User: Fold this.
Amino acid sequence: MNKHFVVLKVNYSKENKNEKFLSRYLKIQGYPHFFVLDSKRKFLYFQDNAALKKDCDHNSDEILSFLKEWAAK
Assistant:
């Protein structure tokens, strides 16, 4: 994953909403989410984490497929 992506964890909580950072992107209804930006920080896509889960656990096949789809060619 680190070969094709810069991973940045952005916290969102009642105490720290990170409004300055998150206001630059589409408003989302829940967290966690994956945001995909290009090398110039242009927003490309976001994915709700729930779509990458199976039976309350992360589905490694779904996550791998998502990462392959958005990895730089």
